[in-house]
Protein: histidine kinase
Amino acid sequence: MISLGFYFFLLCIFTIAVIVAVIVMAILGIFKRSPYNRLSTRIAALILASGPITLILIPVSNVLIGRVLLNAFTTKGSFAALAIYVLIALGTPLVLGVLAARFVRRPLRQFNNAIASLEQSNYKVQLRSMGIREFDEVFTRFNNLIHRLRHEEKLRKDLVSDTSHELNTPLTTMIGQLTAMQDGKYPLTEERVAILKDQAERLAELVQQLDAYTRARMPVTSEPEDIHLRQFCEELMNHFSLELKQKGITAKLHIAEDSIIHANRGALQQILTNLMKNTLHYSQATEVTIEATAHKLLFSDNGKGVPSESLPYLFERFYRVDTSRSRTTGGLGLGLAIVRELAESQGWAITAVAGHPGLRFVLKINA
Structure:
């Protein structure tokens, strides 16, 4: 029979191995941030601990079984010896398994509760850090998603009030004018007809914006074609020449004569048109520039720009840098959302960056 001294020797060897492993992990911790908050590290530690625990239990079980074997010739003694073996064989991994499950159960319970809250349209729920890297990485992305959904929900609610206001103002004016003329309070003059026409055009413009956004989200059916970019942009500048002159804005093109882009003509025209309208209405610029490189189309101005916190949201539908409801500074906030939808339909990507001064739109073109 193996002596207790031998087991003590094995226990010492294993303890030394554990100490060496801990030292190595500590050294790695110098080069890798917080290795101990990994779920895999904790599970590995429990598995590693099973070795010395088993070495400790073996001599203890041998002593217990040795005493039981004194009554081994009785049925009661045989069952007791078997029970000890079963307890050691199953009890140790069971206890370690429960501890390992605790590392997983608590984060999953919190995650499940957050999902349940989200199903009830509770966008204020946030997941707390659990100190386990694998779960915390997922929780961080989940919290970012919740923040995004909360922002989208706010935009959706704002849309209802904004659209109601934008549609109600011209309708109220038109109904008031028509009612007054019908009752004979106001004469039917050219001036009043012009007011009614202006309000009707405002309604038509709002409906056109909503319709344009809807169409931009639909699949493109027309085939792309080779477009001479400089000529295309010159035609765009000519179309807006009067408005540019009225605003005191100088237009510049930095595009090679032989620059050709393969794209849907209608989509590209709508993209540049919306960018130009955005500059005319909001930038307060004195200069606008369109520049083409190998795989980028740059549209920039030297105006007042936008706050840095607004840059990530410029292409969100119904987002407005100026939250006022004035027609000149407000609007529905669909122009740049349409630009993004059209760009993505071409397989492109568009971003907005600070121009120092002004604002620059970068349209990345897949060659």
About this structure: Residues 248 and 286 are 6 Å apart (CA to CA). The radius of gyration is 36 Å. The domain at 225-364 is CATH 3.30.565.10 (Heat Shock Protein 90).
